[in-house]
Amino acid sequence: MDPWRGRQLSFVVLSALWILASAVTRYSIPEEIPVGTVIANIATDLGLDAHSLLERKVKLDYIHSKKYLEINKDTGELYIAEKIDREYLCPAKASSFCFLKMDVIIENPIRIFNIELEIMDINDNAPQFRRERISLDVSESATPGERFSITNAVDADVGENSIETYYLSDSDTFTIEIQSGSDGTKYVDLVLKASLDREKQAVVNPLSGQCKILVFITDLNDNHPEITIKSFQCLIKENDPVGTVIAVISVSDRDSGDNGKVVLSIHNAPSTILPFALNKSSEDFFELTVTESLDREVKNSYEITLHVTDRGTPPLTDNETIILTIQDINDNAPSFPQSLYTIHLMENNEPGMLLASLTAHDPDLNENQYLVYVIIEKEIANTSMSMLFSINPENGNLYALCTFDYEREKEFLFHIEARDSGLPPLSSNVTVHIIILDQNDNTPLIVSPWRPQGAVIEEVIPRSSDKGSLVTKVIALDADSMQNSRITYQFLQITDTTLFSLDQYNGEIRTTRMFSYRDPRHQHLVIIARDNGDPPRSATVTIKISTVEQVVTQFTETTEVPIEYDLFTDLNLYLLIGLGSVLFLLLITILVIIVLKCQEPEPSQAAPQGRNSIISQRNSSTIADSTLISSDAYWYSLFLAETRKGKVVVRQPLPNGAGFIVSSIPGSAALTETSASRSSTLQESSSDLP
């Protein structure tokens, strides 16, 4: 590799490591704290996953110091491995700050975090004079106020724990004055406050002796206990298991004895039971854990008040409130207010008509509650439901896509699905029953008496009909249902209102009296058939009633003015046509019989005397010879001809089903014929016939 390129690569790597390690995390602890004391959780503070520390080979790299600290690779806690003496670690008093510097190194990928641990001083060192005895030579001519410098005392502690002041035992000759240097060091001078007389006193021992006084201060419960939240998850999922740690809490009290002993508890209303508990993990450390399953739809957040009290007299307390929010998961399927929606729709509706709004509810949040509505496909008469109905996928509005006809489809039954947008999505169905209501949109149809559209019905009745005789019956049908199809009949026009009556329910027209010679021969009736809809629909039929005489009476000249009758009425014409048709058919039948008799074949010699047999074969050749031979009319004509001759005609099928045998037997021999004579009947298979 090129040396210059190698140096560039090294520079890039060092720059990246410097950027990764540029952030410094600082902690402060007092010196001399016990071994095993937890300082902090670096996994939480550095944003690392505590479960991956062992895998990523986390370690501490100390800078010019002993291994005072260690990391718990299971929990990420930084704890004391060896007691720290600030005076040993930072012997110089140039600054009041003392730092223990180290690096936290993790792999996969490699990351470096700078840790600075400030060691705070405690008052663990007593002041000491550098010499136990100080001798001063002072001239008796020294004047009061003269100063004499003495060696300062030293204290390994710093700040407030270092030398604060000096005291001098009671003396009438000397006093002391204390001065502070620029670095805060206290300097003491011995000041002469009275003249000296050597003759009176040669030696003055203002510092002739010293004694140590041990003062015990009785503690007063004047400090409140304190709660410190070391770590806290303000947001947890509603499906987090029981035992999940929510927060790590420490408590402390600066008092001593019973005044410094504290009790931590969860403070809540008497009627409220919180699904959380405090578990003591170590001295003055507690874990707040989940004890019951959580449900965000029941309660979406909890306000937890931590209450700490000491055992002093009177006891002092402190409170700390934390708010825990429950995060939603998709654990609720959408639900409809009802399982079945029945919708009544009047037929002949407008396409695009809004039928109903089918709205489901999902108690989840965000995308877990966003619903989509769809119609579950179902075919009716090769027609899909999506071709008949449409639903808005966002709001559940159901629309009709076409116009419905009650007479074709009376109801529809299908399902609608509401599906949320969670992962995985949840859904539920609802049944929709659409009932088409009938509308009076069909006019009654008169089916009896039948007539072409707009034609007049002609009825003929005897003029001698009795009162109450049935003339005709009008029958009308209506395709609508229920009330809309109930039909009533009425006279719309009538020649003589006293002559006929009409039953409004069954449509029967009857005579109300007998005809008189004054009544016209032709009566015109217009009947209206009206349904019971709103508005009602109707149809009319016109009936022409003609009266005829059954017996023509011979009138004489002595009678009064004779009534003229038309012998060629419509009824007479119909009778003549019918009679002519019957005579014509009879003539044709006779001609057919004569033709068939002329074509009758000679009887077979093998057949018994007095018996004629004819084999009928149902095949195409017979039909080709004569259509009369293969038709049933021929056999019927033959039967008539033979019976007139006094013979009995017998028709028997062939065994193979290909044809049948017709035999004519004399009447006298029919009763005595034995099975032997019947066996002589000519039988031929279909293959032998021409």
TrEMBL record:
Spell out the Gene3D superfamilies in the cross-references: Cadherins
- Listed InterPro entries: Cadherin-like_dom, Cadherin-like_sf, Cadherin_CS, Cadherin_N, Protocadherin/Cadherin-CA
Q: Does the keyword Transmembrane apply?
A: yes
- Where in the sequence is the signal peptide annotated? 1-23
Question: Which GO biological process annotations does it have?
Answer: anatomical structure morphogenesis; homophilic cell adhesion via plasma membrane adhesion molecules
Q: How does it sit in the membrane?
A: Single-pass type I membrane protein
Keyword list (alphabetical) reads: Calcium, Cell adhesion, Cell membrane, Glycoprotein, Membrane, Repeat, Signal, Transmembrane, Transmembrane helix
Provide the protein's localization: Cell membrane
Give TM regions.
573-596
GO CC terms, sorted? plasma membrane
Q: Where is the Cadherin domain?
A: 21-129, 130-227, 228-336, 337-446, 461-564
GO molecular-function annotation terms?
calcium ion binding
Q: What does this protein do?
A: Potential calcium-dependent cell-adhesion protein. May be involved in the establishment and maintenance of specific neuronal connections in the brain.
This one is known as Cadherin domain-containing protein
Q: Which organism is it from?
A: Cyprinus carpio (Common carp)
